[in-house]
Write the structure tokens for this entry.
Amino acid sequence: MSKKYIMLKELEEERIKLTNDFEEIKNNIQKVEVELNQMKNNLNALAGAIQLANRLVESAKKQDDDKEKSEEKK
């Protein structure tokens, strides 16, 4: 039965591989965080646009109602 030893070179190569994988995943996480923030900003912008659209619709409805009421009085 022969013993197998891990060579220093193999250990160093594995360390380099693990370090590279770590850095790649770290960079991917940072990219996803940036994209997530952009999506949140877009979501907030859309919410504001919807809120404005709702106000304009309500204002238009009120103007129509006021116009109808004034025509009924005539």
